[in-house]
């Protein structure tokens, strides 16, 4: 069997979606804890890092139930690009919603 395969590489920059959940602390001063994880979806219903993303959702649920006690905001970021070279910067160096996090950062 002979197979002929052709490929075309597209390396242009493009905007990727970034889902951010922001839980504001009623007694906060703008500082926040950033928890981030990647999302890879190659087909409908298939997602890499499902356990990490589920952990983030559970952390958000637990903190939302105790929102009145928070002294820092909580930001949960679900970013694309994990499998694309050059797009997966560590969460502490990423700019989230126009601000650079110098607060606590955690990646799932």
Task: Describe this structure as you would to a colleague.
The protein contains one helix and six strands, in the order E-E-H-E-E-E-E. With 108 residues, it is an alpha/beta fold. The chain has one domain. The chain starts with 17 loop residues before the first strand and ends with a strand. The strands form two sheets. Strands 1-3-2-6 form a four-stranded mixed sheet, covered by helices on one side. A two-stranded antiparallel sheet has the order 4-5.
State the gist of this model.
With 108 residues, this protein is α/β, with parallel strands linked by helices.
The counted number of beta strands is 6
Helix content: 10-25%
The side-by-side strand order for the widest beta sheet comes to 1-3-2-6
Question: Quick one: biggest sheet?
Answer: 4 strands, mixed
Order of helices and strands: EEHEEEE
For the record, give the distance between the C-alpha atoms at the N and C termini, rounded to a whole number: 44 Å
Beta-strand fraction estimate: 25-35%
Which structural class best describes the helix and strand composition? alpha/beta
How many helical elements?
A: 1
How many structural units, i.e. domains?
1
Rg result: 17 Å
Rounded mean pLDDT is: 76
Low-confidence stretches: 88-94
Question: Could you list some keywords that capture this structure?
Answer:
108 residues; alpha/beta; 4-stranded mixed beta sheet; two-stranded antiparallel sheet; elongated
